[in-house]
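Researcher: Next entry in the queue.
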Amino acid sequence: MHGSRRSRAACHVTVLRIAKLMERRPMTDEELVRRTLAGDPGAYARLVDRHYDRCARYAYRMLGTREDAEDAVQETFLRAYRALARYEPRDAFERWLTSILVNQCRTLGARRSRLTRRYVRDDAALARAEAPRWAGTSELPMDVALERALAGLEPLLREAFLLRHVEDMSYEQMEQVTGAGRSALKMRVKRACAALRAALEVSEHA
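Model: Structure for this entry, 206 residues:
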């Protein structure tokens, strides 16, 4: 009888220890998705906190202004939340989220380009409008010259360069995120690198 009680007590202590260890271990994205779908109001907020800075950096480099980047990121998380029930756990959440972000940046970038062409006719003013408004060095871990060179790339080239060399994605991952073929993506990255080298050489000798 006493042995049975001691056994149950030891088992209870073990369960408590495991529970405490589970509390300390950061939940994976997939676990947070499941908790969000189960109705945990704080789980999605943790996903946003975990991925917001990375998304904001990418959006800023793609769009060039803090305002546009914030719009893209907010719309990305809103759309991701609405589509969460369709998320497949076999796909990495970060990659799935990035695919939504890439599309939002494309949409906002195209809209801004149309508005700029519609209302601005002076070439010098157009160039100034397309250049990024730097928000401060704390938000720009990249060299300013590189940031400016990136801003001058065609959007699809800038997108490919950032995904490959900043987000450190494989070409397979880039295919999943962008919907483009591997050969097209490799060509975009190659053209982006060549254009950046040329722009940086000009900047160094300016």
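Model: The two ends are 88 Å apart (CA to CA).
Researcher: Noted, moving on.
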